Structures are given as structure tokens and as C-alpha cells.
Amino acid sequence: MIDEKKKAAVEGILFTMGDAVETEAIATALSLTTDEVNEIAEALAAECEREDRGIMVTRVGTKLQMCTKPSCYEDLIRLCHVPKKHVLTDVMLETLAIVAYKQPVTRADIEAIRGVNSDFTINKLLEYHLICELGRLEAPGRPIVFGTTDDFLRSFGVTSLDELPYISKEMVEEFKQEAEEEAEIGI
Contact 63/20 with Cβ under 8 angstroms? Predict the structure, then answer.
């Protein structure tokens, strides 16, 4: 049996914070175990599944977040009058894939893989909150290292990076060969 007062406290925290909150942080703040917080979160999520609710509790890795149900997006867009739809170009998707699979990664690493300057693309991905600066590398020049964000996980419908598709060495070799063949055709 879930204590309604504790459930209300978890709900209040998730509502107030807005962003995803570590389960462990909630547990510490409320003097609960992470298992208790997870049980409460599951109960809240179940309550929110009803059609007459406009919010939902979602899990992002080890974090919890309260957010609007996708079925309410059209109403929100009409309210805001400024629907922002970020369009990801092939170049942006390519760069985002490099960051997702190689993180933490520097700008120089990204450019070495892509073979071209990636300043504009990296800045756009930062603007869209799909990647973020994770810190600086302990190397000459102390380059910034990048990684993906919780928004990246939500946008692609995964709860952790472990859910990203695995790319085998055979597939990489196959992609390389296809790219080389395409390059030869273009000559």
C-alpha cells in the first residue's frame, strides 16, 4: 500500500522541477528508498494513463519526469501560437549519431570522422538541446567534450543510450564499401 502523502510529495517534486530528476535524489529528499520512489512513480504513471489526464510520468534512464501527454500537444501549440519544429538535416543526424555513439567526443573528433568543419551543426544541435557540453578534456587546449541530453533520449523514444541500435563491425565495413562505390561513381 502506497502512502498517499509520499505519493503527493513525489508528484509535487516532479511537477515543480519540470526537468527529469534522479530517482536517488528524490529518495534522499523524502527519506525513502529508490525502490519506494520507483513504486510511487509507477502508481503515479498508472493514474496518469487515464484518458482524462493531460500529464504523464516518464522515465529517462534513472530519472523521472512529469510531462504533457502527446495527445495534448496540438492544444499547447494553439496556446503558444509559435510552434517550433526543429528539422534535423542529414548532416545534423550524422553529427548527432557520432556524438551519441562516441561520447564524450570533442569537436575535433567529430570533424575527423566527418572530414569537414562541423561548427554550425554542433551549434544547432546545442541550440536544439540534443547535445550538451560535458566539460573539458585534460589535453592541450582543453577542448570541450560533447554528449547527448535527456531531450535526445526523449526525442528518439529511448530511455538510455543502451537502447540505441548496435552497429557491428561487418555493418561498418559494408557501409564503408557502399560509400567508396558511391564515391567512385561520382568521379
Answer: yes
Q: How many domains does the chain have?
A: 2
pLDDT tens, per residue, the chain with 187 residues: 788 899 899 999 999 988 899 999 999 999 999 999 999 999 998 888 888 888 888 888 899 999 888 888 888 777 776 556 678 899 999 999 999 999 999 999 999 988 899 999 999 999 999 999 999 988 888 999 999 999 899 888 888 888 888 878 888 788 778 878 877 775 5
pTM, full prediction: 0.55
How far apart are the C-alpha atoms of 88 and 78, rounded to whole Å?
23
Determine the structural domain holding residue 115 and report its residue range. 90-186
In a domain, 125, yes or no: yes
Asked if residue 36 and residue 112 are part of one domain, the reply reads no
